[in-house]
Amino acid sequence: MNPNVLVLLQWLGAFVLLVAALTWVRWLWQYVCLPLQAQTARLSQRYGAGSWALITGASDGLGKAFAQQLASHGFHLVLVARTPSKLDRMQAELQTQGVQVRTVAADVSNPSDSTYAPIAASVQDLDLSVLVNCIGTTVHRRYTDIPAASLRRLLAVNVHTTATLTHTLLPALLRHHAATGHRAALINVGSIVGRFYWPGTQLYGACKAFIDHLTVPLAFEYREQLDVLSFQPTVMSTAMATGTEPAAITITPEQAARAALSQVGHVVSSHGHWRHALLAAVFALLPAGRRNALFLAAALEMGEAEKAKGE
Known about the structure:
55% helix, 12% strand, alpha/beta, 10 helices, Rossmann fold, 7-stranded parallel sheet
């Protein structure tokens, strides 16, 4: 072999190894080191102590975990969810931590101006520094087996709500930066399903891919004022997944929220917990045909569990 070619191949091999090593170090930093760090001082300093956070889907699951975490870090809260009784319980619970809490009962499956106007009005007099668009719903079926009403609901809840509230409340986040000099934060919750073509969960995946493609560009558009996180977790032990979750990859909503809050301001896109990031890496390595067969089988099994619950 030509000595020059051999040297070139050696340098190329060394470069590939260096890139792999740096990628691995960054993965460990993002998914292992950051979630282990205490966050109260960092979040308060970055976004302003005593400022407000608005969370959708705040009465259950991941939204509730975000609310509890942010309250523990000293943020006042605006909680948005569908059920007033659950919001009342959350308000009473969180106020014991010494934070102020407002609630807005809204059924976002109705994508009309009357749904979003009370949410916008709830922050008009507040210093809003954090927005967490967490609300979501899913269904696991072959596409023709999805009822038309469920199709419309998934689009309204997963796509219209996140797009509309981000557009409606972003000016308030920018006002916070202009008035205080602190950055603001936007966390839009997608899913790992939006990162792959996912037979049996195709509509939900399309909705979550939309959220990712909406969210990440905002990090560049408003890079001087805003920290943006496109958050793509996998399975959590929530009501939406009960009876369907594979134990090996399931984490608690508290673990997911803690990971997301540790990473916002450091990265623009994340799966949050190391288990979910590792799962995404495994999926990316699988041949597409094998991956699709696994996805479809798992989705149809989850669909049967949903039907058994009357969903």
